Amino acid sequence: MDYKNGYKETIKARERIGDFIYETPLIRLNYISEMLGTSVYAKLENMQKTNSFKIRGALNKIRKLSDEELKKGVVTASSGNHGKGIATCAKMLGIPAKIVLSDTSTEAKRQMIRDLGAEIVITSVETRFEVAKEISEKEGMTFIHPYDDLDVSEGQGTIAVEVLNKMDNLKMIVPIGGGGLISGIAMYTKGVSKGSKVIGVEPENVARYTLSLKEGEPSQVNRGATLADGLLSVKPGDHVFPLVRDLVDDVVTCQDKNIKKALDLLYNKEKLIVEPSSAIGLGAILEGKIKYDDRDKLVLIITGGNVEGRAIEEIINS
Asked: What residues does the Tryptophan synthase beta chain-like PALP domain cover (predicted)?
């Protein structure tokens, strides 16, 4: 696959969706920087419209659909944030949307999607794609994959455009589930920056990329328990796996106990409301999985904030 000019598609995606999304803040985490003895920054997608990065990819995909496709509507499978992104885009455009959610999704995320006017269907993590594709075939709705779609990846990659417009020669630390976010970020980053690295972090109990990179092909793992409810995909996407394999510098795992420690620091010391999945990058640093020195610039991609403060407190205190 030729990645040399892939970054140009991300720039087009930024032009396509730029008027409909926020350019989210990129801030220095002062307490954590002092604690770790290096510069740590956070790209705050928890402050994005829908409080998650997912609207970027959803909107890029939907804005490429024909009028006829838009009239029939869209359907997707999601653990929550992608579904909210699709539902938000559908409401903006006045088109029908059905969201197939996993039974692991939180009630808060379900209600957010209902409030946007989309219909929800609940099923298991393992069957959610089958159910969504059946709806697509039966009702003629366009199926929008949450991560295994290059149009979606290009939209997610616009995060990297915003980061690299402000700084370069950095280590971008990205939560990794199915691979849609990190593939888009890596495509753009490696196209425009020679000195920046992209590092993926996945839950130790759902280490589908760790296994797949070892096997050399997308491989399925058994889903173990994890606090990172947004990173539960059991197999990498077929379309995005080659990008991760070829462009991402490293993929590491993180234990739940370190996700909890990171969540505590982000919530109580930096005063940020973020989902456990967003804390996994910092968790991997605390676990010693990501090497750095005092000259590094570590950029944590904070992927979402669709969680209540009391839920964060319950996790931290459990």
From this structure: 19-304
Tell me the domain boundaries of the chain: 3-51+149-317, 54-143
Place of tokens 């509507």: 73
CATH code of the domain occupying 3-51+149-317: 3.40.50.1100
Tally Cβ neighbours within 10 Å of residue 43. 26
pLDDT at 1: 58
Beta strands in the chain (DSSP E): 26-28, 39-44, 74-78, 97-102, 119-123, 142-143, 171-175, 197-203, 250-254, 297-302
Contact 131, 100 (CB under 8 A): yes
> SS3 of 219, please?
coil
75: CB partners within 8 A, 6+ apart: 97, 98, 99, 100, 132, 135, 136, 139, 141, 142, 143, 144
Enter the CATH code of domain 54-143.
Answer: 3.40.50.1100
* C-alpha distance from residue 101 to each of 83, 113, 121 (Å): 8, 10, 6
Which residues, 6+ apart, have CB-to-CB distance to 173 below 8 Å? 199, 201, 281, 282, 284, 285, 290, 298, 299, 300, 301
- Answer whether 0.90 is exceeded by the pTM: yes
Q: What is the pLDDT of residue 105?
A: 82
Q: Does residue 4 surpass a pLDDT of 80?
A: no
Largest CA distance in the chain: 56
Buried b (16+ CB within 10 A) or exposed e, 209-220: bbebbeeeebbe
The reply to whether 54-143 shares the fold of 3-51+149-317 is yes
Q: What is the pLDDT of residue 165?
A: 97
Mean pLDDT on 283-296 = 97
